[in-house]
Design a protein that fits this description.
9 strands; transmembrane; 442 residues; MetI-like fold; 2 domains
Length: 442
């Protein structure tokens, strides 16, 4: 009879202790829960409710904003760009991270190498966007990428010597820079003077000498191509003056019956000669290749390449993150399995494909899904790097949501609908990642 009260009395202190621990845990968790509710739960609920009202927020429109979102071509383009980001960026980052993690194991200064690759993670997306906006500039004098591209191009294809030059009007040359210039009819023994303007004095080659008209050749044609501009005063149009420079490196052709029969390049003083020409009449032609605009590089921020260019900047920032996480997983692999495979005669390629990658599959999956979640939220790089005229071509859901809500659209109903769509796209990846972490912890 006395055992039941004794057992109940012994259980009561345990219940009270358990209750106190729960209350204490709730007290410690309460500030975090309040903060989470204020910064996460309330904005989500508010955005869902706001998406059911019009731009002013006064009139209930139901699902009209979601219908408009599906019909809006700009939103559909942002959705396609987001899909491209999700497919390309995480896959490239995971592959690069895996490759670099494997390679750094064979580098003597692996720690320093990893540190250098991880450093971009310390740079904000805003700063990285500004850096890459300058690097992608079309002007080779400002954009480092186009400076390299133009330098490599010009090493294999000689640039046009005088892209801004044009013939002096009314001085015997007909045509234009697009088709080239042609002189009137000339006979062997003649000397032609071909005046050009439009070349800045600083653009004349450093080796250019004072222009001079060459002596006539009895069986050929001679002439000079020069810059018809005298610094200061005293110059005479169409006449070779003492202080005027020749235009070296200019290609000149002797044309007969519409066909070029001889070609010459002007010397440092602008002179050229055609010897051994037969009797008859000829014309001198200065081909359009002399005036073709120089290679300007790649239009990185044009409509066709702006999204791949921004993805390239994103890869620069996040490759170190992927490499470090995969490297940590690689360091935890059982070495005895790898050594046993080498003893059995497997080469490094077979070990990588059949052992390393399968054992790293859980780590690769977590890295890939984490990057998918991050890519869905990308905003800074797209907004900073893409120029205004092509902003719509580069938009993703996050930038489209901001532009519709605050960047001039002033339609927070539609912007809230976009935010709900973005949330619905991110949640499955988050749930998958949380489950992976729980499985790994268990």
């Amino acid at each position: 009879m006395d055992r039941k009260p004794t057992a109940r009395a012994a259980a009561d202190p345990r219940r009270r202790a358990l209750r106190r621990r729960r209350l204490l845990g709730a007290a410690f968790a309460l500030p975090a829960l309040l903060l989470l509710g204020a910064l996460v739960a309330y904005p989500v609920v508010f955005s869902v409710g706001r998406s059911l009202f019009d731009a002013s927020g006064d009139r209930f429109v139901g699902a009209d904003n979601y219908v408009e979102m599906v019909r809006d071509p700009a939103t559909l383009k942002a959705l396609r760009n987001s899909a491209l980001w999700v497919v390309v960026a995480p896959a490239l980052l995971t592959g690069l991270g895996l490759l670099l993690a494997v390679l750094t194991e064979r580098v003597r200064w692996a720690t320093a190498f990893k540190l250098v690759l991880f450093l971009p993670m310390a740079v904000s997306f805003l700063a990285a966007g500004i850096v890459f906006r300058l690097a992608y500039e079309q002007d080779p004098d400002r954009g480092v990428l186009n400076a390299v591209v133009v330098g490599v191009h010009d090493a294999f294809a000689e640039p046009s010597p005088y892209p801004t030059a044009r013939a002096r009007d009314g001085r015997g040359l007909a045509g234009g820079p697009a088709d080239g210039y042609t002189s009137g009819e000339l006979r062997p023994g003649s000397v032609a003077v071909l005046p050009f303007v439009g070349v800045a004095p600083g653009a004349v080659p450093a080796g250019a000498e004072a222009a001079r008209a060459p002596a006539p050749a009895p069986d050929g044609l001679a002439g000079t191509v020069y810059l018809d501009f005298t610094p200061g005063t005293g110059g005479r149009p169409g006449v070779v003056d003492d202080r005027e420079k020749g235009l070296p490196g200019m290609t000149v052709e002797a044309v007969r019956d519409g066909r070029a029969v001889a070609t010459a390049r002007t010397a440092a003083d602008g002179s050229f000669h055609f010897d051994g020409l037969g009797d008859g009449t000829y014309r001198l032609r200065v081909p359009a290749a002399n005036f073709a605009a120089g290679y300007g590089g790649v239009d990185w921020l044009g409509p066709a390449l702006v999204t791949p260019a921004i993805i390239g900047a994103y890869l620069w920032v996040w490759t170190g993150f992927s490499m470090v996480l995969i490297g940590a997983g690689l360091a935890a692999l059982p070495r005895d399995v790898l050594e046993a495979a080498r003893v059995d005669g497997a080469n490094e390629r077979q070990i990588f494909r059949r052992i390393t990658v399968p054992l790293l599959a859980p780590v690769l999956t977590v890295v890939f899904v984490t990057l998918v979640i991050n890519v869905m939220k990308v905003f800074d790089l797209v907004y900073v790097i893409a120029p205004g005229p092509v902003q719509e071509e580069a938009n993703v859901l996050a930038t489209r949501m901001w532009l519709v809500s605050f960047g001039g659209g002033n339609d927070q109903g539609l912007g809230s609908a976009l935010s709900v769509l973005l949330l619905l796209l991110v949640v499955p990846a988050m749930v998958f990642n949380i489950r992976r972490f729980r499985k790994g912890g268990s």
